[in-house]
Amino acid sequence: MLFYTEKITPRIQYIVRFFLELIFSEPVHFTTDVNAYRNAGGCKLNYSGQPLQSDELWIKPHSLLYETGIRPQDIRCFVYNGQKAFFKTDGHLEFDVFAAAFYLISRYEEYLPHACDDYGRYDYKNSLAYHEQFLQIPLINYWVVFLQSRLKEKFPAASFRSLPFLFIPTYDIDEAWAYQHKSFLRNVGGILRDILYFRWQDVLLRLQVLSGSKTDPYDAYERINEIHRFIHLNPVFFFHVAKKNGRFDKNIRPDTKAMQELIKQHARKFKVGLHPSWQSGDKPSLLAAEKKQLEKIAGCEIRTSRQHYIRFTLPHTYRQLIHAGIQEDYSMGYGSINGFRASVAWPFYWYDLENETATSLQVFPFCFMEATSFFEQNSSPAEALHEMEYYYQQVKKTGGYCIFIWHNTFLGTAPKFKGWYEAYQNFLEKTIQKN
What we know:
By secondary structure, this protein is α/β, with parallel strands linked by helices. The protein folds into 2 domains: 2-154, no CATH class; 165-178 and 216-432, Glycoside hydrolase/deacetylase (TIM Barrel), CATH 3.20.20.370. It contains 16 helices and 15 strands. The chain has helices at 10-23, 34-39, 97-105, 128-131, 139-154, 184-196, 200-211, 221-230, 257-269, 278-282, 285-298, 316-324, 370-376, 381-398, 408-411, 420-432, and strands at residues 2-5, 29-31, 44-47, 57-58, 78-80, 83-85, 165-173, 236-239, 271-274, 304-305, 328-329, 348-352, 357-363, 368-369, 400-407. The strands form 4 sheets. It has a 5-stranded parallel β-sheet with strand order 9-8-7-15-14. Helix 1 (10-23) packs across helix 3 (97-105), helix 6 packs antiparallel against helix 7 and helix 14 runs parallel beside helix 16.
């Protein structure tokens, strides 16, 4: 594939490679030489202000990919080929698909002044996807499919890739047990708090668990393992290993023997990643310490992470992850609504807008988290089941990675989350197993 542009910029190289390496089996080559472009055979894409010849696909550029720096963009959406589009231009396509995708996938809007939610995170209500009502679809995936179809029409003899589909279940282990393996003081404090609020059933359950007559309500590990014994998937488990507890960090201490054994058991069978603590967002030095702690327990190098509470800000958090040696991040989604934060369901390498460079950090977007469905959207288990099926089918239509987040807390026997394990099991058995 030969790609012509009047000027090769880091933004152009980044987003064009993302598209064309998904679409074609062969690598893309860039040129600014008009004569070399005209004389070449095969697939040719002209990204310039005017057409150069008949045997090409011509996309007239918007200015975004030639710019540097960050400034508000004039964005007006319209419907094209049944989906939303913006950055309208002339050419064989009615919009600059590369500039539009770059705006979304780079999270350009998150670098502009914006309001934050109650947790200090970028508020989804600021986003273009929310305002234009495409938050619940992987819009860029649809654009990839559309561009591939146009290129196939123009160059039927070219070697095109199939766009594979993959479902990846992921699990955040924020609080490994509700009552077990906690210190005497934490359990006493919990009992007193439950008595204060007249939660007598909780007091009874805690005492039954501590006496050994009942299973801890957050102990869902055998249930999860049982699912994966019959439905062969490749799950990823993220462990929270902060040394100190806090308002948002309620994990079992990593020096607890039971916690260490839990991590080791999972590291022997599955991919394990770090779930950086809330505290590490305020004190970055903790990130490296937690990574090192998890590596020591798991007995393997940790290259994968997901932020606790989906707490991250761009570009600072991603730079900290890279500095700590993290190569894959699974945080790209919202903690307060389900959907596609970057409007894509393909992994992509993070582009540092301030430094105008593609980085080594690969981002794996998620589209569904059960805690968001429960706490923010007030969904029932039945409604969450329909939501999971919807996102699964959305990604399957276009190809991509459909990534869900679940917590052990929802998959155990806690009365608060009654019916959620059954909804997840139903989804896996009826939707995944049959496909």
